[in-house]
Amino acid sequence: MPARGGALARRRRSRLPAGQRRRAPFISSGALTLADAALAVSRLTRLLDAAVDVAAFSFVAVDASAEPLAAAVQEARPHPGQAATAARLRALLTQERATRVQDPYGYRAFAQVHGAAVDALAHATAVIEVDLNASAENPLIAGSLAWHNGNFHSAPVALALDTLRAAITQAATLSTARLATLMNPAYTGRLPFLADRPGASGAMILEYVAQDALAELRHLAAPVTLGTAVISLGTEDHAGFATQAARHTLAACEPLEIVLACERVAARRAHHGPGPDRPLDADLDAAREALSGGRP
């Protein structure tokens, strides 16, 4: 990314001390994996919920049509996440606008793309809850018998988390698409980049920041389940890599939050106007705080 993207520096949240994280896998790699995975789905639940509020700001800012959210449309393709997303967004919009015959996909296909992420999150949450309450010992002691088994294998968790990261990356891509429309006078009726005067760059830096975060998301979305390892003289001849999947999913929360925060700042400025000369980084920090706290 160009150097100017560094103007809005990201603040990394504190994590476990490096030494503590290095020791944890030697105690129980399964426990570490499920702990990271549980934290990730908890944070993503808040972010995907808040993302609907953010999208509503953008819909209003560009007078996007609510027609694609109609119940009849959702009933024709009844994916649960899609229907729930459309219903929630419909409730946030006060009226169906028809400024354009068809809006860009960032608006017209929002329920479908975001809904797929919601479904992926629901599946991942269910898988993690099963494993948190499962008996994964080998051998499994049941009564007076010892059952040698493969309950320890992490394939279900790793696959669910790989799918989840791909799904939230798709949702983030659509957020950056909406952000691009918010910079465009053809959609907002304001100056390019939501500037307060002709020729100024306005809020264009938000696109740099959002695209940088999206690039990080794409990197983290690479599926770990395509790899494997053979160890222990060939006895342990397959690996699920769920630990890496959980770690990457937890790490994906921050760039997703940044993408949504950029859209939120731009949508509010597009709706209310550039306003006073308030630093963009202050607005972005406030937006991230609101998103991480689950508030619109």
**Top-tier CATH class:** Mainly Alpha
Q: Give the SSE string.
A: HHHHHEEHHHHH
> What class would the helix/strand composition place it in?
mainly alpha
Radius of gyration: 22 Å
The helix content is 55-70%
Named CATH topology: Fumarase C, Chain A, domain 2
Spatial order of the strands in the main sheet? 1-2
Work out the count of structural domains. Answer: 1
Tell me the overall shape: elongated
- The total beta strand count reads 2
CATH architecture: Up-down Bundle
Termini gap: 29 Å
- Unreliable stretches: 1-16
**What is the strand content?**
under 5%
Q: Could you give me the name of the CATH homologous superfamily?
A: Fumarase/aspartase (Central domain)
Describe the protein in words:
The model is unreliable at 1-16 (pLDDT under 50). The chain has ten helices and two strands; from the N terminus they run αααααββααααα. Strands 1-2 form a two-stranded antiparallel sheet. Helix 1 (18-61) packs parallel to helix 9 and helix 6 (155-182) runs antiparallel to helix 8 (205-220). With 296 residues, it is mostly helical. The protein has a single domain, classed as Fumarase/aspartase (Central domain) (Fumarase C, Chain A, domain 2), CATH 1.20.200.10. Strand 1 and strand 2 (145-147) form a beta hairpin. The protein has helices spanning 18-61, 71-75, 80-92, 105-108, 110-132, 155-182, 185-188, 205-220, 242-272, 280-292, and strands spanning 140-142, 145-147.
